[in-house]
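Title: Prediction job returns without error message
Component: structure pipeline
Severity: low
Priority: P3
Assignee: unassigned

Description:
Job completed but the reporter wants confirmation the result is attached to the right record. Sequence as submitted:
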Amino acid sequence: MEPGRKYIGRTQIMKVFITRRIPQEGMKILSQAGVCKVSLWDSDETVPRAELLKGVAGAHGLLCLLSDKIDTEVLDAAGPNLKVISTLSVGFDHMAMDEIKKRGVRVGYTPDVLTDATAELTVALLLATARRLPEGVVEVKNGGWSTWKPLWLCGYGLSGSTVGVIGLGRIGMAIARRLKPFGVKRLLYSGRTAKSYAAEVEGEYVPLDTLVSESDFVVVSCALTPETQGLCNKDFFIKMKNTAVFINTSRGAVVNQEDLYQALSSGQIACAGLDVTTPEPLPTDHPLLTLNNCVVLPHIGSATYSTRGIMAELSANNLLAGLQGTDMPSELKF
């Protein structure tokens, strides 16, 4: 009998560790499956490192979140029983993929299901940033709202503008679809290759430098890779218009935040909206948080009740498929 595995009748009961309290939709699937014994870090807060290493010991399956660093130490702590890692995220840069592949561990993730929610949040963040909504709310609350003034709290509109999307994948395309009805005149995009489906939004495939220099709104929606890490740096921001709006809902590490601060504080660019930062959470004394022209959200791109529930369901089903050696609904191929 394999260590760590129990048997009830002919059913093999395998150990699963979940690194956080997840929506009940996922827990219900696992509890009713009858093939695993679940151990859970029963909190909304990140599992402490020591508890993660302890919890994963001897596990056959691991269900984790984007904030959990799944590295060689964790894999070693899990040991040879580990068959599957299911992450409740579309991103996977928190996992040591080369080491996971080497050990033959399967990986499930949650693409597609959070596309619409993230695209909606991106548009909301863009509008809030460009039209200075957070500043307006503060002025109403602190008594700064007096008489009507022609240029008070003026921002930037989408009508007749040029929007550049860096990374026209699932989420990038969903963002573009939502922005076009605002009267966007040109939709530029850049990436590794031109996309045939870009015709739906009249997207123009252009070099990155062209996109950066000609766009009124620059929206980052690419994956974090060695090529995109630190992509948005001093040289990048210098090429932008000084009236341009910068939005990032991809990964924090795509942006050099020190260079972004300089660009915003010097007037090199008009304003920025971020739903992702490095680190997360961003320290409350971070320089970016001192700027009125920078809107920072706490990584809530997929934060709708329905989306998080679907993500939990998919994560649970990915995990069960990996444990049972069947096809996953969404398996990361590498």
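Comment from assignee: result matches the submitted record. The longest strand covers residues 11-18.
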